[in-house]
Input
Amino acid sequence: MDSLLIVGGRSLQGTVPISGAKNAALPLACAALLTADPLRLSNLPALRDVSTLIDLLGRMGVVAQREAGTVTLQAAQVSEPFADYEMVKTMRASILVLGPLIARCGHARVSLPGGCAIGQRPVDLHIKGLVAMGARIEVNHGYIEAHAERLRGARIVMDMVTVTGTENLMMAATLAEGTTLLENAAREPEVVDLALCLNAMGARVSGAGTDVITIEGVSALHGADHRIMPDRIETGTFLAAVAATGGDVRLDGTDAGSLDAVIDKLRESGAHIEIGTGWMRVAASNRPLAVNFRTAPYPAFPTDMQAQLMTLDCIARGTAVIAETIFENRFMHALELRRMGAEIELSGNTAVVRGVPQLQGARVMATDLRASASLVIAGLIAEGETLIDRIYHLDRGYESIETKLCNLGADVRRVRGAAGSA
Ligand code: EPZ
Output
């Protein structure tokens, strides 16, 4: 397994291109199952998770044509509405094929995703919503087995705000008989991006971006050409990296509109952030101020930025209190940051971070995607060398991160791991 070797202490300068959003690309690719026509997605990020999903769709009979930054997916027929455990366990977002498969084929057999490092990650709300739309669902031997002649519209009140749950049900409802109301729906920008694409395919979705989404079912969808929104979490990660390391960086091809909560916190830490049309600039020169924050569903502070901002707090002036309200085990990066000299006390879903003037480079291990990003930022600001093992987590969600960082003046090198090494 590969590692990243980082020599810390250099500020970041220059321009970085932001890639398409992983968490938009994944549901958008699954939307291809809803029509026999081609769906063309541009601004496609070159990520492991995207490749994994395209492979999974391929096994179902979806033909993929990839050019640089674009994929055209065509489910002329779905020969195999099946997602096996091997595929789903490596990428939980595979659950997003469930709704489209039932809507298009009338049946599906999809492995339960199982948990992951950051939490149990149940999909009970996905299943509950599909049952409300008339699907007959059994869970046998770790697989969700679903059947429905044709889904019918329903009023669904989601017990919790679930992003992929909202996306799964929204896609399923596009081909249902009648109208579906999703209440307490997720408001994330990726949900809005998916709704824009579905409507371009002939669906009738309204209210995306609010907590009540209405979907009027139609008999069929057609192909479309959709540009994937910029990745707001990659954007936030680079903003946090510059705020922590100091420097002056322009981010191209991004959209500040979906990051208000993150921008507010970074400005509070002392970073200067400028917003243009399709670009942002972040500059910082002094040691940041500690910022308290609490994660919650959009538009509040995103859980996917919690680890990155914790790293900034590790070297900030003052003490910060961080509350993680979305996932039950999303502080594992704190254990690794401590090995670099961070002073972090954990108690349940709360972390208290007492800022220290400097971190020390060390050998650390990535445990999940955003934890990996926080360790990269820690390596950039630490004194000396940091070696981050198991960076396959990072490759799932960040396109060419070492190239992008080196182009900003960082000293980052990928170390090819011996097969089977830690
Ligand atoms: C999406 O995951 C994102 N992934 C996650 O990003 C992100 O952290 C998360 O939303 C929250 O914003 C994708 O979009 C592919 P949830 P998702 O369903 O949809 C509970 C990353 O780093 N829940 O919104 O799986 C759940 O346990 C990844 O890019 C149920 O109880 O998250 C959690 O506590 C990590 N039952 C809360 O809801 C359900 O049926 C929110 O989870 C569904 C969810």
Q: What stands out?
A: The mean pLDDT is 96.
